[in-house]
Write a structure and sequence with these properties.
Elements: E1 2-7, H1 14-30, E2 35-37, H2 51-55, H3 63-75, E3 78-80, E4 84-87, E5 94-101, E6 107-112, E7 118-120, E8 125-127, E9 140-143, E10 146-150, H4 159-165, E11 172-177, H5 181-199, E12 202-207, E13 222-225, E14 231-235, E15 240-245, H6 248-257
Parallel strand pairs: 1-2, 2-3, 10-11, 11-12
Antiparallel strand pairs: 1-15, 3-5, 4-5, 5-6, 7-8, 9-10, 12-13, 13-14
Length: 266
């Protein structure tokens, strides 16, 4: 199955971001991709963290979710909708939700980001817990014979989540992200390839990549990685696509030649 990671440089305006996402998803579908992933915060990179509260949608209802459903249906693809803010139980918090839509436009999965990013090096300071409410459950779904495990950005640093997603084993792990330039330069590819190798499956990582209007700079480098850790495609910076075939035969061969998953003791 051909899979595609969409890379964006999202803005503080939802309409502009949806237009860009629609154009890039169409390009991926025209190139033959059957499963397409948008990046984290594809719909909004606001001036402030709490800008998410103003555009937060009720679960299952709202223009951003409607856009994702229609795009999946129009292009007859599996569409992993990066993340969007879904209202939480308390009015000053949202869930950073990854919603997935099937080729008929139906929602087939929702994963709420479990691990909330915090970083302070004296020059850059982030704390997602000020606005986000953490999820708690790993989520995987089936797509055209592939078992697909969901994660978001900072989750990448927690291998225990991916081990949980491997019972039963996934064929593909997806990582929508908005890694900072600083942390991405140091760790993004290293961690993605590690998750591919240790779980012996393809990894599809769709990222924000560039200098945003809110002055934040994201690392980009959206990738497709195979089960041996080989980078099959990469979009370094700016809008674009990383697209490649995720051959099920490749996954089977790696697991047969080196049956590490079968050797697990814990």
């Amino acid at each position: 199955m051909k899979i595609a990671a969409v890379q964006m440089v999202s803005t503080p305006e939802v309409d502009r971001n949806l237009a860009a996402a629609g154009r890039l998803v169409a390009q991926a579908a025209d190139a033959g991709a059957r499963l397409v992933a948008l990046p984290e915060y594809f719909c909004l990179m606001g001036q402030r963290d709490d800008d998410k509260l103003a555009i937060a949608e009720a679960d299952g209802d709202g223009p951003i979710q409607a856009f994702l459903s229609e795009a999946a249906r129009r292009h007859q693809i599996w569409l992993i909708g990066g993340t969007l803010p879904i209202r939480a139980a308390t009015p000053d918090r949202v869930r950073n939700a990854c919603c997935v839509y099937g080729p008929g436009g139906e929602r087939v999965a929702r994963y709420d980001k479990i691990h909330l990013f915090a970083f302070d090096n004296g020059r850059e300071r982030y704390d997602e817990g000020r606005v986000l409410e953490a999820g708690s459950e790993p989520v995987a779904f089936d797509a055209a014979g592939f078992r697909v495990g969901l994660s978001v950005c900072y989750d990448l640093r927690f291998p225990e989540l991916y081990r949980a997603l491997m019972r039963p084993a996934c064929d593909l792990l997806v990582v929508p992200a908005a890694f900072t330039y600083t942390t991405g330069k140091a760790h993004w590819e290293l961690l993605l390839r590690a998750r591919a190798v240790e779980n012996q499956c393809h990894v599809l990582a769709s990222a924000q990549g560039g200098l945003h209007e809110n002055t934040r700079r994201t690392w980009g480098h959206s990738m497709v990685i195979d089960p041996w850790g080989e980078v099959l495609a990469v979009q370094a910076e700016g809008e674009g696509l990383a697209i490649a075939d995720a051959a099920i035969e490749r996954r089977k061969a790696v697991r047969e030649q080196l049956p590490a998953l079968a050797h697990r003791k814990l």
